[in-house]
Amino acid sequence: MSTDATEETLTDGFNLVIDALKLNGISTIYGVPGIPITDLGRLAQAKGMRVISFRHEQNAGHAAAIAGYLTQKPGVCLTVSAPGFLNGLTALANATTNCFPMILISGSSEREIVDLQQGDYEEMDQLAVAKTMCKAAFRVLHAQDIGIGIARAIRAAVSGRPGGVYLDLPAKLFAQTISAAEGARSLVKVIDPAPRQIPAPEAVTRALDLLKSAERPLIILGKGAAYAQADDAIRALVETSGIPYLPMSMAKGLLPDTHPQSAGAARSMVLKDADVVMLIGARLNWLLSHGKGKTWGAPGTQKFIQIDIQPTEMDSNVEIRAPLVGDIGSCVAALLDGMGKGWKAPPEAWTTAVNARRDANLAKMAPQLMSNANPMNFHGALGALRQVVKERPDIILVNEGANTLDFARSIIDMYQPRKRLDVGTWGVMGIGMGYAVAAAIETGKPVLAVEGDSAFGFSGMEIETICRYNLPVCVVVFNNNGIYRGTDVNPGGGSDVATTVFVKNAQYEMLAQAFGGNGVHARTPYELMRAVNEALDTGRPTLINATIDERAGTESGRIANLNPQSALSKKK
Fold it and tell me: Are 281 and 251 in contact (CB under 8 A)?
């Protein structure tokens, strides 16, 4: 008796992870290959995904995080277990703090060995560690649960206030097999992962009534407003209201920095003098002096309206008189509807005073930006880059450092939304090359990364990654021979250099040359502008070593107040 048996088609954990990601529109993975996830990267490439391999997991994680910010889909970072996972954890925590949707996927040791602490290869209870650093954390133990696990990670990353999610995949999971038909049924396409949250009508009315009563109103735009991609509605709200607005650094470009209502160059004045402040996607954290203190007016004289999707954000530092809970697009649309055609502009005395202070400050700064000193100072060098961005408003600017960040934030105008990417809420250094790679990959636009020499050191080896993938990234290293400046001396008089001093006159441009890119040394603003324009014209990976006067920097940029001094040294 003969039988016509057909062998059952199988799938495995490797394929199910990739199929689940692709089903949900995720086409790029950032990571570092190694045991036990090397074959996952190979198979993902074979199945049409783009897998961008870095030299360090932290940089891959930062790339995934900013990819999430730019696309509103969770960026995915893939790492090996234990040390690789820990390297990616900084980026995961930073993504959560900055509200960037990101999923860190790490291979891990087997549960039965980890739980008994029997000394497995790179043994670590990664899930327990990750839970304290992110919005949600999940572990998948069975192949048939991979689809659900990835669906839960995606929804957690983008719903409500976005953030980082950890997904733990033990090595044994990848080799598990189930029937292909069962595997296909187990996959989940996430439907409406970030649904709109409509604000309560009475909350909208309360906010509008408070704005109407204001004599000196101010709108503050945060990076949450940029993430929302409600650009037209936000611009309409600002222009319809007639209220001066202050953009936080990553919100620059939501409206052009040259807009007549921009109060960026009058920041100190408007924060201190405003009587009603409306926060859109901005938090009253340390970046805004917690809404109190010398930066702001006398306690109790200012009233706050806050738009945020997270109810518990309200009253976190000061009383919020008009909390508006909901997604930014819906809240802004509701405010616009409530304004109607009869909206009254703020008092002319206020807008005239703001404009006068802004124009005076810009006029005062203008001559400094024309400096042609050799070696360059920060104003002269950034004045040259300011002109480049003005002529190329579509490029993406990545920026980090101490003085390099602080001066660039106020000097370089932005003209389009989500074109300025920087250190964000934590002020963490090392985001530069990861952000630059992901910005080029996700947008296809040229990228200009302006780096302090200290900040560049955290991720500088990724120049090889930029060259390997032939990305249109131009990196400018502001080289002043040290952290803050290169003139410090060892207070103990020993042979070691001061802790803040680097090798003098380092030739950073040779890093790019080593990997086939273009390396340039710029000593004057003209040379810097010419080199940047050439790099952006050609799209060739370029590193420009921009010599900055080593005396030009200031301690801790503009946050020296956060750097405590020895009580004993104060008494001397």
Answer: yes
